[in-house]
Amino acid sequence: MKHTLYWLQCGGCGGDTWSLFNARSPDLAECIDLLDIELLWHPSISVMGLTELRDLNSALITGKKPLNILCIEGSVIRGPAGTGMFDEADGRPKKDLVAALAHQADYILAVGTCASYGGIGADREIEATGLHFHKWKQGGFLGESFSSKKGLPVINLPGCPCHCDVVIGTLSMLLSGAEIELNAFGMPLEWYGMMVHQGCTRNEYHEYRVEEKQFGEKGCMFFYLGCHGPLVNGPCNKILWNGRSSKTRVGVPCFGCTRPDFPQQYPFFETRNIEGIPIDLPDGVSRAHYLAYKGMAAAAAPKRLKKRKTGI
Amino acid sequence: MSAKTVCVVPFNRVEGDLKVRLDIEEGRVTDARCSGIMYRGFENILKGRGPLDGLVITPRICGICSTSHLSAAAKALDSIFGAEVPDNGLRIRNITGMAEMIQNDTRHSFLLFMADFTHPHFRKHPLYEEAQRRYTPMKGSDAVQTVRESRRILEIIALLGGQWPHSSFMVPGGVVTVPSPNDISQCRFMVRHYRRWYERQVLGCAIERWREIQSRKDLDDWLEERPEHQKSAVGFFLRFSEAAKLEEQGRGDGRFISFGGFDMPRETGVKSFGNKDQFLGAGFLADGITASLDQEKIVEDLSHCWFENSGPITQHPFSGETRPYATGSESDRYSWAKAPRYDGHPAECGPLAQLAVAGDPLMGDLAETIGSTLFTRVLARLARTAILLPALEGWLQELADGEGESFHNYDPVNEGEGFGLVEAPRGALGHWVKIRDKKIQTYQIITPTAWNASPRDQKEVRGPIEASLVNTTIENPDDPFEAGLVIRSFDPCLVCTVHAIET
After folding, report:
1. Closest by alpha carbon to B350, among B65, B81, B122?
2. How far apart are the two ends of chain B, measured CA to CA in Å?
3. Which of A199, B304, B331, B410 is deepest in the core (most CB within 10 A)?
4. Is residue B447 part of a domain?
5. How far is CA A287 from CA A284, A293, B476, in A?
6. pLDDT for B237
7. What pLDDT, on the 0 to 100 scale, is given for residue A62?
8. pLDDT 10s digits, B238-287
């Protein structure tokens, strides 16, 4: 029997969907075919008319039709004043549909940072929240004790947007019965068990503290330009974007878009620091050791790096 | 007295959420009200943030045109900081902007729009089976090819900007990227590959042949000329439209606005459409006359949207504010979209508007002879790539040939105001930004869909989509399929409902 999948867009930009269309091997059409997925509904793809959609929703909500996988893109919008009417679906708050479908689904994927943790609109006038987390705190829209029909928490696939290979890889693991190991914030370790920094082509500059203060240079952006690469989890520099590159490789600082509190409340493109050393240090590093290491690293920096004479 | 039905219908295959109230009498739409039904509050999220934060936050307004928002944000900051963008910076901004536009036009046409041709509504249409073979979602031949080819053109943005969607590689003074010669040659491979596919599958002929078409008659002659022309996606659309009589559907009032598109480098061999500053010139086209654009004439009218205002009912974006409140949907207010007006008038934007305003011979002719209809809107979107690709190729070649910087440093100022107007895939997009004490004081955004899906204004004049729905024939009021077709011909994008809509 085919695996049924329902994709619902809530308070988001559609970017996770369009990112999914970037997938190459398999691409989205192949993925649906090879994983034997019956795509019940996707708002950007489906041709189904309104009457049929209402019938489908009611069959799913009452459990008459099984729902294997529910993918939610975008935050759950609860404003104004808890009504949810800043985001409505067919005359009712969309959050009601989210809750009804969530209680019937075998597995739930929160695709992107907004669905996972609230993202752009969290703690703002739209009262956005994530499905199973609100920023760092478990709970979110569905509540701390929630589990899907198969007994799993919501699987969080953060990133703004979420990388296409992460969505397809997670679907593939779930449908083949593989166990998915999650970290404390519900993210699969397979893709979030590494730092964005790992695999960045600027790593040698970082090693020797060759740091940039201005855009358009080749060195590291961690000390002055607000790069979050060593601070946050994500596979950007392992699996690359569009099969080609990453922000940090071309000189755009990592903005930490997989982090539960993205977007940060302090300015982008600058690093908060104490006497030239970043306040936020790589996960688990002691400040004293880091200071000593960076001082020696800068002193040991080879001329070819200081003069930015590399092909990278 | 005739029976009148009122139906309120949400429409999908538009980016985001759009709800339309249709009044139907004797099988025809007599009135329409468009409501953006999602509010995401971006403008208020930006208030008080760091001066460059628009470069990170605003691309996240829209997942299909994030590079356009980035470009508008960067241009607004260019003007605030007085930053000069060197030629290669302009080239990279233009190349990536065009790549995004080409991606959008392909995906919208073949995944979102043509999918309607496979709906049972058309079961008696002589080309229904061919439509199903081509456009059944995720299965039809053209749909699957679109999935495979559209991602390829986006690799250019990844090579020059890190990723698509949602990068922030444009900054005041240019772009951060310093592409290597191999990056550029990889981009050129992608473009050549895409051109081949576009010429073979979408046009059925070389771009050069297509651009010889300058009138409706030329278009008819072209269709008859070769079987390849009839078999191509454009040929199929022309044949399907004729049999389904789409040419007259969804007629707009014919006022067009375009912010033009793509700033010309100071030294370039790429020829613009007669405008020295922009590849496609900006303007406002009404009654057959194109006037140059003056952003001072843009206001947003708040009379029918769910926003409070303390001052006048119309506001220029520099004095605009976004204060949401919810009232019952039965009142005069019915949308999260404000109503943008130019010189007091609603205006349609998008590929047809952009090309007609810029003076493209074919789209200029069709806009004049047929006007703004479902047919001309969709055809313009299918054919825009033929205008963009040669320029994109030219700028890539110049990037390969010349050394030149792509970024000039600038002096950040603590206070100032500026705007960035760009042409996004769906039309005119503007950011108006004020900075005080090194922080964003106000950030107002007008998206293309805000223009097109605009509600009424204080004079009760309908927005472009509303106006184009009037007179549409509806077979089944419970599922007004025909209205969806008209709406999707605008390629609306409701996630940009920053105050209400998506671009």
Report:
1. B65
2. 41
3. B304
4. yes
5. 10, 10, 69
6. 98
7. 97
8. 999 999 999 999 999 989 999 998 999 999 999 999 899 999 999 999 99
* Length reported for chain B: 503
Please name the residue of chain B whose CA is at the shortest distance from the CA of residue A121: B40
Question: Where are the CATH 3.40.50.700 domain residues in chain A?
Answer: 3-190
Candidates B298, B267, B291; CA nearest to B454 is B298
> Rounded to whole angstroms, how far apart are CA atoms B412 and B416?
10
Q: What is d(CA B287, CA A127) in angstroms, rounded to the nearest whole number?
A: 46
- B168 and A311 within 8 Å at the Cβ level: the answer is no
Sign of CA dihedral B176, B431, B323, A126: negative
| CA angle in degrees (0–180, nearest 5) for B195-B201-B206 | 50
Pick from A13, A45, A241: CB nearest B158? A241
Q: Which of A243, A197, A221 is nearest to B153 (CA)?
A: A243
Look up the CATH architecture of domain A3-190: 3-Layer(aba) Sandwich (3.40)
CA distance B38 to A238: 35
List b or e across A232-266, with b for residues whose CB sees 16 or more CB atoms inside 10 angstroms: bbbbbbebbbbbbbbbbbbbbbbbbbbbbebbbee
> What is the interface pTM, i.e. ipTM, of the complex?
0.97
Query: Using alpha carbons only, what angle is made at residue B171 by residues B169 and B177, rounded to the nearest 5 degrees?
Result: 40
Taking the C-alpha atoms of residue A141 and residue A115, their distance in angstroms, rounded to an integer, is: 10
Interface of A with B in 226-255 (CB under 8 A): 236, 240-252, 255
- Output the pLDDT for position B395: 98
Averaged confidence pLDDT in chain B = 93
Distance CA A166, CA A37 (A): 17
Q: Which of B42, B67, B112 lies closest to B425 in space, CA to CA?
A: B67
Tokens 């600058």 locate to: A270
Q: DSSP of A61-100, one letter per residue?
A: HTTSS-EEEEEEESBEE--STT--TTBEETTEEHHHHHHH
Query: Is the domain covering A194-312 a CATH 4.10.480.10 domain?
Result: yes
Note the pLDDT of residue B324.
81
Strand segments (E) across chain A: 3-9, 37-41, 67-73, 76-77, 88-89, 92-93, 105-111, 128-129, 133-134, 137-138, 155-157, 273-274, 277-278
> Among residues of chain B, what percentage have pLDDT more than 90?
82
Domain with B224 in it: what CATH number?
1.10.645.10
Residue partners of B175: CB distance under 8 A and separation at least 6: A216, B89, B92, B93, B160, B161, B169, B406, B407
Per-residue b or e along A19-47, where b marks 16 or more CB atoms closer than 10 Å to that residue's CB: bbbbbbeebbbbbbeebebebbbbbbbbb
Q: Which of B8, B38, B113, B447 to mutate to test the interface with A (most CBs of A within 10 A)?
A: B38
In 3D, which of A108, A41, A26 has the Cα closest to residue A72?
A108
Decide: residue B411, CB within 10 A, 0-12 exposed, 13-18 middle, 19+ buried.
exposed
End-to-end distance of chain A based on CA atoms, in angstroms? 50
For B41, the closest of A9, A13, A121 (CB atoms) is A121
Burial track B92-123 (b if 16+ CB lie within 10 A, e otherwise): bbbbbbbbbbbbbbbbbbbbbbbbbbbbebbe
* Residue numbers of the domain that contains B156: 4-488
Q: How many domains does chain B have?
A: 1
Eight-class DSSP state of B21: E
Residue B254 lies in a domain: yes
Q: How far is CA A299 from CA A290, A291, A302, A310, in A?
A: 14, 12, 9, 19
The answer to whether A160 contacts chain B (CB < 8 Å) is: yes
Is B446 within a domain? yes
Q: Closest chain A residue to B178 measured between Cα atoms?
A: A216
In a domain, B494, yes or no: no
| pLDDT, tens only, A161-194 | 999 999 999 999 999 999 999 999 999 999 999 9
Checking if the pLDDT of A108 tops 90, the result is yes
